[in-house]
Amino acid sequence: MRAATPVKMTLPWLPLGTFSYAFVAKKMGFWEKRGLDVTIDRGFGSGKVCVPVDQGQYDFGILDLAVMMNCAGRGLDLVAVAGIWPRSPVGIFSLKEYGITKPKDLEGQTVAFDVGSGDFQLWPAFVKATGIDDSKVNKVTMDAAALIKVLVEKQVKAEGNFFGSIAPSLWAQGLEINSILYEDYGIKMLSNVVACKRGTIEKRPELCQGFVDGLMDGLKYVYLNPEKSVQLHLESVKEFQGGSIANQKVIEYGQAVSTALGTVPAFKSDGLGYMAPALVEQTARTVETYMGVKNLPKTDTMFTNKFVGSARLTDAEWKIIDERSAKYLPKGS
Fold first, then answer.
1. Distance between CA 204 and CA 121 in Å, rounded?
2. 20, 120, 164, 298: which could form a disulfide with 113 (CB 3.0–4.6 Å)?
């Protein structure tokens, strides 16, 4: 019996329900049966995933594709090997009671951001696309943990975030939110992807295959078994153990949002993880146009679909998932 290959992966954020698929993949032995011993670490925003993966501290990282491309433009050699959220949940969110429903409403308000997060890095794109006066928006930055707290405690009127990070926490506290999604204003992008170094793909393709297969099996399991997946997640993450019912709700809602973001034609026709080339291309153009990246590598060198396609669902399974997911999609403008 050969010893399992150790693999390190980093999430882009806290170990919330939006990332249940990784904990499920580990707990269910989907990696183990492929000879991999995977360690999962929390992250501190997509912007802080690029360098540790590029430097080899992690074999794989989950991050926003636009942020990964921005890093590639700076010379980091990263390639996306599977898509997780083909829909982008990035936006500006506020409590419903404030009536902030369109970009112009943000002028004169204080908006909180975490500098490492995709929403902050794409803020210039949002400003450019919507024509709002950036100088009239008071931007304050803080760490991830403080973001949701300041909104709940009404210290700020709005904040940049990912729908899957913020909505579950607020819903679990019985609060309703308004969403101003970047994608509703033309900033169309593929969101979370799994990325690794090009060298890993070239020198260790079997590692990439095993890792992606195991992760996609985890994603499929979450799509089909939400209740069981919540339990597996709670058992896997010690911060949530012996926790309150609110904790469980946060995991449950996060998982539901994550699944809803995957209900797209590309996943249905080509398998979980498939990245539609046209959407990847559109993401690259967004990064060039709005993030001012000058030397972006050719789009087809920044992603590959060769490791995806094995995890598929039937039409009947998709029908159930679509019906269950409808209420967890971000309500756009």
1. 32
2. 120
In 116-162, alpha helices (H): 118-121, 123-130, 144-152
Kindly report the number of other CB atoms within 10 A of residue 165's CB atom.
24
Residues 6+ positions from 17 with CB-CB distance below 8 Å: 164, 168, 230, 233, 250, 251, 252, 253, 254, 255, 256, 257, 258
Rounded to an integer, what distance in angstroms lies between the CA atom of residue 247 and that of residue 88?
25
Residue 90 exposed, middle or buried by CB count within 10 Å (0-12, 13-18, 19+): buried
Question: How far is CA 235 from each of CA 19, 20, 240, 248, rounded to the nearest angstrom?
Answer: 14, 11, 8, 11
DSSP letter for 208, please. H
pTM: 0.91
List phi, psi (to 5°) of 99: 65, 25
Residue 191 host element (H or E): none
Tokens at 183, concatenated:
């994608």
Phi, psi of 221, deg, nearest 5: -60, -45
Which own/partner contact pairs does 235-238 have at CB distance under 8 Å and 24+ positions apart? 235/27, 236/23, 236/26, 236/27, 237/15, 237/23
